[in-house]
Amino acid sequence: MQKFENFLYKLLCYTCGLLILGMTLLIFGQVLCRYVMNNSLTWSEEIGRYMFVWITFIGLPVALKYGAHVSIDLLLKKTSGKFHLVILTINAAVTALLGVLIFYSGIKLFNLGIGQVSSALQMPMQYVYSVIPFSGLALCFFAVTVYLDQRRKLAQGER
Q: How many other C-beta atoms are found inside a 10 Å radius of the C-beta of residue 112?
């Protein structure tokens, strides 16, 4: 399970990094074309927007696994024992519930996008929306694994 968790985390990190690089190059190219060549790329803004959506939804589980989300750290630092475990459990349960809601809503949006196409590229919108249910599942997965890791550390006396 640990191998799969590490593989998924690395895959999401590299995907997010490549998307950020691609979006940066695309927007830079758009600015260059607009101001140097006086010719705007009509499709670049749409692709940049969709890449940003993908970065956001892929970055959500990555940030959870990395511990980069704003959370209840201050409260956790002030507590110990059973109350600390209760707070960790509630936090993990709410995060997993959020993942389920994102998954469910993403499936509905994906189904809504079937038959729709984007305005500039005429690309099927379900390709854009497909990241949302995936992100919800990954968020649930990392919510559980991070919780189990934190609980194991708490049982061993670490923090």
A: 12
CA distances from 89 to 37, 62, 95, 115, 153 (A): 56, 20, 10, 41, 14
- Give me 145's structure tokens: 């694994």
Q: Would you say 117 and 124 are in contact if contact means Cβ atoms under 8 Å apart?
A: yes
CA distance 10 to 31: 31
- pLDDT tens-digit map of 102-143: 999 999 999 999 989 998 889 999 999 999 999 999 999 999
Q: Collapse the DSSP code of 147 into the 3-class scheme (helix H, G, I; strand E, B; otherwise coil) and give the result.
A: helix
Which among 42, 47, 59 has a CA at the least distance from the CA of 127?
A: 47
Contact 68, 12 (CB under 8 A): no
Beta carbons within 10 angstroms of residue 133's beta carbon: 19
Closest to 127 (Cα-Cα) out of 107, 105, 110: 110
